[in-house]
Specification:
single chain; 271 residues; alpha/beta; Spore Coat Polysaccharide Biosynthesis Protein SpsA, Chain A; ten-stranded mixed sheet; two-stranded antiparallel sheet; 37% helix; 25% strand; globular
């Protein structure tokens, strides 16, 4: 069994996939497999991968089945004890794989997921140090937009990992798997990693931020329309709360929905 299975999603990713795959293949670590799932690219991504990286396993979807479904396809056929999910526009710093495996292997704790430090492609601004879920049940990327410096180099427990670059324990994934998959395929795109993190928390699995592993993220490589992103974010947040919040929590959130979410719903419906 390979120690790490790396699941990379592509959707019209011809501009980014070479940098992503080359950064993985350049790692000073041998115990990994790469599985690319393409969601119906029309820009030559599939042909490029077949010609330039014939050693990489490629799953071709005829249309865009969504990020959650595609990741699940990769996980289903993978062999690793650990699953590393990567967006196609992520590039890994040297030593990334070795550092994360050494950390989880030496840790005496039951780590369900690990979050590397994700910086923007400029290597200066933080993209994510993990997911935070507030008492208002709003979620955001920790430290997003802040200038990277030493004060963000302390490992710490977090709510969950951002699936743009996240390491998951196979044991955890199998424990929390639902009829709708490891990642809930009904979410299609956005918030599915928050849902997975919440389910993992309820099962007692820990998520940790590990800043010594660095990677870089370009952002919105799929060029998803802003209004469509707003729709998925709004819809999936309601699904997230409906699935995971207890009854008292839902009652507590009613005033918040009336004050914030209902007007936002009207705005989305209009525009």
């Amino acid at each position: 069994m390979s120690e790490i299975s790396i699941i990379v999603l592509t959707f019209n990713s011809i501009k980014f996939i070479k940098f992503c795959l080359d950064s993985v293949l350049a790692q000073d670590y041998n115990g990994f497999e790469i599985i690319v799932i393409d969601n119906g690219s029309m820009d030559g991504t599939v042909t490029f991968i077949k010609e330039e990286y014939p050693q990489i396993r490629l799953i071709e979807n005829s249309r865009n089945l969504g990020a959650a479904k595609a990741r699940n396809q990769g996980i289903e056929v993978s062999k690793g004890e650990w699953i590393l999910t990567l967006d196609c526009d992520i590039t890994l710093e040297g030593g990334f794989l070795k550092k994360i495996i050494e950390f989880v292997s030496e840790s005496g704790e039951s780590i369900g997921s690990l979050q590397p430090k994700i910086l923007n492609i400029d290597k200066k601004i933080i993209y994510s140090c993990g997911i935070h879920l507030s008492w208002l049940r709003r979620f955001f990327d920790i430290n997003k937009g802040k200038v990277n410096n030493q004060k963000f180099n302390t490992p710490q427990y977090i709510f969950g990992a951002c699936s743009a670059a996240a390491l998951y324990s196979r044991h955890m994934l199998e424990e929390i798997k639902e009829d709708t998959g490891y990642f809930d395929e009904r979410f299609f795109f956005l918030v599915e990693d928050v849902d997975l993190a919440w389910r993992a928390q309820k099962k007692g699995f820990k998520a940790i931020f590990f800043p010594l592993a660095l990677c870089y993220h370009h952002g919105n490589s799929s060029k998803t329309d802003k209004k469509l992103r707003q729709y998925f974010c709004f819809r999936n947040r309601l699904s997230l709360i409906s699935k995971n919040e207890n009854l008292l929590g839902k009652i507590r959130l009613i005033p918040i929905f009336l004050i914030y979410d209902f007007p936002r719903l009207l705005f989305l419906l209009k525009f």
